[in-house]
Design goal:
By secondary structure, the chain is mainly alpha-helical. It has 14 helices and three strands. Helices cover about 50% and strands about 5% of the residues. Helix 3 packs across helix 5 and helix 4 crosses helix 5.
Length: about 325
């Protein structure tokens, strides 16, 4: 079948719908690293938004990230921890919200390329270019004037140059060199979204380190909060869902015992307690009871179940006490 058939839905997807930018070397590295599926969704989401912003930085509330990736908030939080532990993203505190000073602003998320991939990036194959694309850079190089070496060295020594990519540990070490006055002015600049910072005359920062601090301020000033229209909520109070009955809990325990198998050393009662909390009050409460229990048992069977996020340590279920039977006639 020809690729030019307009009625073919594959052709419509290619010609009319949006694409996501996923470089092949980076995608292969993530496969080799065996990244969790939730971490891949969150990373590629911030990669696309950061690329659209032109700064590789995005400022999206975690609730909207969870909705866009079809995940719950707890799973997105664990994905952030996995990505930050491997240096793939950096989360920067956005300070106080300008619209609401009593509320914390949404954190900034910057995506990075792993260092081991950067070291061998030149060995990766490049895309083929057309003749017109190859002629344009050569013509631009011929028309560009040759810079003066002394001017280039002077420009490279200024703090306004582009800051080199540094790790989180190196960035924290740079911030520790700031004096009390510089740190106070830095926090004020982050709060007011300013791109300039006055360093001390006897500052301990090198020109490259000063450039890194100014580059961070530019990222914070360029990223703006993503506004989304909140869904209209009914003013009528929502009816609280009834807890699982004793029979449902017993049936759930049998399903968990069967799902985990004999070789699994996890405690059935602990898993039952976690599943009941998640179904009644946690992330699975938004699903139908039967569907929620099926999701929990499937995760236990596949080994993907973990302790629910924000579950109280001392939580215990409360069930209706059995009624005392009385003699007929009330005697």
């Amino acid at each position: 079948m020809s690729n030019g058939n307009a009625s073919d839905p594959r052709v419509a997807l290619v010609r009319e719908k949006y694409f996501s930018l996923r470089p092949k070397p980076l995608e292969k590295w993530r496969w080799t690293a065996k990244a969790p599926g939730s971490a891949e969704r969150v990373f590629w989401y911030h990669w696309d938004v950061g690329h659209q912003n032109g700064t590789w930085v995005s400022q999206v509330p975690i609730r909207l990230v969870a909705e866009a990736c079809s995940l719950d908030v707890a799973t997105v939080t664990r994905a952030y921890q996995w990505l930050k532990g491997r240096g793939l993203i950096r989360r920067i505190d956005g300070g106080r919200d300008d619209a609401n000073p009593f509320r914390q602003a949404t954190a900034l998320t910057e995506v990075f390329v792993p260092r081991e991939l950067v070291q061998r990036l030149a060995a990766e194959p490049n895309r083929r270019r057309r003749d017109t694309e190859l002629q344009a850079p050569s013509a631009a190089r011929q028309a560009a004037p040759v810079p003066n070496p002394s001017e280039a060295i002077a420009e490279a020594a200024t703090p306004d140059t582009a800051a080199p990519a540094v790790s989180r540990r190196e960035s924290a070490a740079i911030l520790k060199k700031l004096s009390d006055g510089e740190r106070t002015r830095l926090y004020s600049a982050q709060r007011d979204r300013k791109t300039e910072l006055q360093f001390d005359v006897d500052t301990q920062l090198e020109p490259a380190e000063q450039a890194h601090v100014l580059h961070t301020l530019q990222l914070i000033a360029a990223a703006r909060p993503t506004t989304a229209t909140a869904p209209a909520r009914s003013m009528a109070p929502q009816k609280a869902r009834a807890p699982l009955t004793v029979l449902q809990v017993a049936a759930t325990r049998a399903r968990i015992q069967k799902a985990k198998g004999e070789g699994d050393s996890r405690d059935v009662n602990a898993l039952l307690r976690q599943v009941v909390w998640s179904v009644e009050e946690g992330s699975l409460a938004k699903f139908d009871r039967a569907h929620a229990l099926s999701i929990a048992c499937k995760k236990i069977r596949e080994g993907g179940w973990s302790t629910p996020f924000r579950m109280p340590v001392d939580w215990t279920w409360k069930r209706a006490l059995p009624e005392t039977c009385s003699v007929a006639g009330g005697v």
